[in-house]
Specification:
Layout (H helix, E strand, L loop, with lengths): L18 H25 L5 H28 L3 H22 L2 H12 L8 H16 L6 H31 L1 E4 L10 H13 L5 E4 L2 H10 L3 H12 L15 H17 L5 H6 L7 H34 L6 H16 L3 H4 L5 H16 L1 E5 L13 E7 L5 E10 L9 E6 L2 E2 L4 E2 L2 E8 L12 H18 L21 H7 L5 H7 L11 H10 L4 H20 L9 H12 L15 H4 L9 H19 L4 H12 L7 H9 L6 H6 L5
Parallel strand pairs: 5-9
Antiparallel strand pairs: 1-2, 3-4, 4-5, 6-9, 7-8
Helix pairs in contact: 1-2, 1-3, 3-6, 4-5, 6-10, 12-20, 15-18, 16-17, 17-23, 20-21, 24-25
Length: 682
């Protein structure tokens, strides 16, 4: 049988992809790419877009379409065999990427095309492809002497392996912990849906009673509702010491040394390229112009937010003491008493809202919102023609409402399960591409970790989960609705990292609008819309403890940026020393000394957010300001929706993010909309 990763002209053949296919396929494609590029550089003397850039994009696209399902399956149906095959390929892909980035002859070919962009009549997107490529050649060390190029390549390989090991350790540590309970009374306070999930988990594991895990749908209800403070503390400690030197599995999957090594190697890499630190290096491809600008932005938000956060914590402490006789709040008590205060103040709980958000209403409702905004129709493909990696996964396509043209397709994998990485994300299966001889539509992976359906009833989502779904789908729309034909700048590719969250955070706003809620919400049993009284209470509670939430995000952002900006090889990583300094500045509640939050901070140690976590807040300024135009013109105003589609979503990374924002909004962004949406007085 042929290797399904090599015979990949269509969508991935997930059913047929086996771990033993991975390494041979990647070896073959890497060898072919090297040979093809070497031959092109030898044979072509007068470089143009069609004879140089286009064929290289084709070869890179084929490699990407082979690696994409492997990387994705490693996250969603992880196994020892697949992980081994995946990890075996990482250094090979890293070596290839660095080799191409340092190929002087290839750089000269791209430069030759860029130099005659006018003569070749290249469009804006093509010029951006070349501009980004030349920047990335420099960031890959094309200008370095041979010995430093070799060191750069070695660093890149090590980082590829270490970041994967960090992720593996976190997944293993998460999967390793569970708690079996025979007596339902131990779960007192938990909503029926959480108890049913614990029972279902026990049955699936062939255990008696109830089983709790560190997967978010299991962990979160315990922290929010469990009356047993000892149980809350036990889960809090297990969750916040994962992959560390502390907690129930202390030292077993410890990321301590890996984190130190990652930071040291990133710093060395940045210094090799002439930057003072990795934070400077990371900004080379972002909107922010300097490290001072980023820190100033975060400090300013902290100054505006911390007084409110301190008032909110004092209110919570006073409530816990007066109403529940609790003298001191521990970190594992915060969510529990915050939910009590929220119910006390607004007579609202997450559980009261959940019946109005069955997945069977939310998903089609979200598609209707998107249809009204952007003139598209989304429908499921049910003919069995598309292979998926798990029975829960569904496949959809997006069509233009006027022409019927297929704009994009996506896989939907919504539920938590063992061997699946936690969190929610969008990733690309393949990008939009149009060359002189073929056209390829964009395809996305949409992944969440919601509580699965229990006892044959529809999955019920919390309002937070509905926001998460809209957020990730915003990324998906950015990827799938692009009109740019060149993979390097189509969809989310080539978008400045601190602007990439704009469409995702923008979409969250529709979960708070009555017109949006009427489409996505309906009672699971009656289909009735959210009553006015409940809606009013939801809106009143919208910014409950928003100051505390803001400073928590600022803590993450400043910590991430500072460990990369302030790294000193003579002193080492100083991860917890810097974290303590950041907490002294912005935090209103200090966790216990044994808390090991950074050991599970996968966004920055194994994701793409290193020295970039601030992007969430940076882009939130953009998204809040963008949505304020809808507030002015009407939430579903067709002209405003189409303007967002044409100026933001369709343009991808083909122009600078600020140019696109100004084209939509008519001016540069202002911070006041974010503070207003967050309920924080400027």
């Amino acid at each position: 049988m042929t290797n399904p990763l090599l015979d990949n002209d269509g969508l991935p053949a997930f059913v047929h992809i086996k771990p033993e296919h991975v390494e041979p396929a990647i070896d073959t494609l890497l060898a072919e790419n090297r040979a093809n590029i070497a031959r092109l550089l030898d044979e072509v003397t007068d470089h143009s877009w069609v004879n140089t850039i286009e064929p290289i994009e084709e070869w890179e696209d084929r490699l990407g379409r082979a690696w994409s399902p492997v990387s994705h399956m490693n996250s969603v149906v992880n196994s020892d065999e697949l992980r081994e095959a995946y990890n075996a390929c990482l250094p090979k892909l890293s070596e290839y990427g660095t080799e191409m980035g340092q190929n002087r002859k290839l750089y000269e070919a791209y430069k030759a095309v860029a130099d005659k962009a006018d003569a070749l009549n290249l469009d804006t997107a093509q010029r951006k492809v070349l501009e980004n490529a030349l920047r990335d050649f420099h960031l890959s060390g094309v200008d370095l002497p041979a010995d430093k190029q070799a060191r750069y390549k070695a660093i890149s390989q090590q980082l590829s392996e270490l970041t994967s090991q960090f992720s593996d350790n976190l997944l293993d540590a998460t999967n390793a912990w569970s708690k079996q309970l025979d007596d339902e009374s131990a779960l007192k306070g938990l909503p029926p849906s959480a108890i049913a999930l614990a029972k279902q988990t026990a049955e699936q594991r062939e255990q008696s009673g109830y089983v709790l895990t560190l997967d978010f749908p299991s962990y979160y209800p315990v922290m929010t509702y469990a009356e047993d403070a000892g149980l809350r503390r036990e889960l809090y400690e297990a969750y916040n010491t994962r992959a560390s030197d502390q907690g129930p599995h202390a030292g077993q999957w410890d990321n301590s040394t890996i984190m130190d090594q990652i930071l040291a190697l990133r710093h060395e890499k940045a210094r090799l390229l002439g930057f003072n630190n990795y934070a400077e290096y990371s900004l080379a491809a972002k909107m922010a112009r300097s490290t001072d600008e980023v820190v100033g932005f975060l400090d300013d938000l902290a100054v505006k937010s911390k007084p409110q956060a301190e008032r909110e914590l004092a209110e919570l402490q006073a409530f816990a003491k007066e109403q529940h006789g609790v003298d001191e709040l521990n970190p594992w008590d915060i969510s529990y008493y915050a939910e009590k205060l929220r119910q006390h103040r607004y007579a609202i709980s997450s559980e009261e809202v959940k019946p109005y958000f069955p997945e069977t209403r939310v998903v089609p409702g979200m598609f209707a919102v998107i249809g009204k905004l952007f003139g598209v129709i989304i429908h499921e493909v049910v003919d069995g023609s598309v292979e998926v990696w798990h029975p829960d996964v569904k496949f959809y396509e997006i069509r233009d409402a006027d022409t019927g043209e297929v704009r994009g397709q996506f896989y939907f994998d919504l539920y938590a399960r063992p061997k699946k990485r936690g969190g929610a994300w969008m990733d690309d299966c393949q990008g939009r591409m149009k060359s002189s001889h073929r056209e390829q539509i964009p395809v996305a992976y949409m992944t969440c970790n919601f509580t699965p359906p229990v006892d044959g009833k529809p999955a019920l989502l919390t309002h937070d989960e509905v926001e998460t779904l809209f957020h990730e789908f915003g990324h998906g729309l950015h990827h799938m609705l692009t009109r740019i034909d060149y993979p390097a700048v189509s969809g989310i590719s080539g978008v400045a990292w601190d602007a990439v969250e704009l469409p995702s955070q923008f979409m969250e706003n529709f979960c708070w609008q009555r017109a949006g809620l009427d489409l996505i919400a309906g009672h699971v049993e009656t289909g009735e819309p959210i009553p006015d009284d409940l809606f009013d209470r939801m809106m009143a509670a919208k910014n409950f403890q928003s100051g505390m939430m803001m400073v928590r995000q600022l803590e993450f952002s400043l910590f991430d940026f500072r460990i990369h900006r302030d790294f000193d090889p003579a002193k080492g990583a100083r991860i917890y020393a810097i974290l303590d300094e950041v907490r002294d500045q912005v935090a209103v509640l200090k966790p216990p000394a044994w808390n090991r939050f950074p050991h599970g901070f996968s966004h920055i140690f194994s994701g793409g957010y290193a020295a970039g976590y601030y992007s969430y807040k940076w882009a939130e300024v953009l998204s809040a300001d963008a949505f304020s135009l809808f507030e002015e013109n009407g939430v579903f105003d067709p002209a405003t929706g189409r303007s967002f589609l044409h100026n933001i979503l369709e343009k991808g990374g083909s122009q600078d993010a600020m140019e696109l924002f100004v084209a939509f909004r008519g001016r540069e962004p202002r911070i006041d909309a974010l503070l207003r949406h967050s309920g924080i007085a400027a």
